[in-house]
Amino acid sequence: MAAARPGHHDPCVTLHQDEVPVDESVVRSLLTEQCPRWAALPIRPAGAGTDNTMYRLGDDLLVRLPRTAEKADSLRKEQRWLPRLAARLSYPVPEPLHAGVPSTVFGLPWSVYRWIDGAEVRPDTVSDWAAFGADLATAVRELHALDLAGATRDGELSGYRGGSLHPCDEWISGALDDCRRTIGAEIDVDLLERRWRDGLARPEPSGPHVWLHSDLKPTNLLVRDGRLHAVIDFGGLTVGHPDAEHAPTWDLPPEARHAYRETLGVDDGTWTRARAWAIAAAAGGVAYYWHTFPAFVAECRDRLRAIVADVD
């Protein structure tokens, strides 16, 4: 199994002010020091996301290294919780094989995972978008149905997705103002703000807390034979209300999104709040990564266009 797939970002480009530098020589030194049985295997870049840099190790392994000390908390969370969840899920998820510790060459924890073979979610890899949406809904239902086994919404499992929209209003309003300056000529940001406020106006979510992946965007899903095969990158794992879990469906074609909602039976209030979460993540991404991560900004712009075009 793997923790991530090849991304669209150059791992040598800095995204955050406090990043810890890493390259193939650093990875080799860590392996020699802590995992000598793997130290001679070939190492090659496997992409980078907003939180981690990845290197393929041989044919069957993946090394994941957090970009900053803050991002390291998510990696520790995977090391702690994924082995407990994996045995209770029917679909593959990342399998941590080694929990690396800080060293003189890299002062943060890091991980080695088993590689999961699969394709990225794209029009040429998904054969039936409605079936894919239903598959994703089934995977989400299974995760949400797991017993919390004593886990609570605090500490490392208290991610803002899973809570209320209202604490995010100030920074999302600022992000939408940034979007007006950068993409306002091509996307109706005023409409997006109205839909954000529609979510704020809905009653607060109720019901029991559940396990949440929190970032089910297409780059964190793997396809095999045209169908959903695996869910990866659980760095955002949290416990809370499920509204934000549904937000990445606006990254999918309408037929996938509609099948997902129908399969789960998501009510209007939850769906309106989910759309607001989708706006929040995308507007925040455009504002924060505008100068540093153009491929991710493009993904966020596509999501915002889909929300504007959505007739639900």
UniProtKB/TrEMBL annotation:
<dbReference type="InterPro" id="IPR011009">
    <property type="entry name" value="Kinase-like_dom_sf"/>
</dbReference>
<dbReference type="Pfam" id="PF01636">
    <property type="entry name" value="APH"/>
</dbReference>
<dbReference type="InterPro" id="IPR002575">
    <property type="entry name" value="Aminoglycoside_PTrfase"/>
</dbReference>
<protein>
    <submittedName>
        <fullName>Predicted kinase, aminoglycoside phosphotransferase (APT) family</fullName>
    </submittedName>
</protein>
<keyword id="KW-0418">Kinase</keyword>
<dbReference type="GO" id="GO:0016301">
    <property type="term" value="F:kinase activity"/>
</dbReference>
<dbReference type="InterPro" id="IPR051678">
    <property type="entry name" value="AGP_Transferase"/>
</dbReference>
<feature type="domain" description="Aminoglycoside phosphotransferase">
    <location>
        <begin position="43"/>
        <end position="277"/>
    </location>
</feature>
<keyword id="KW-0808">Transferase</keyword>
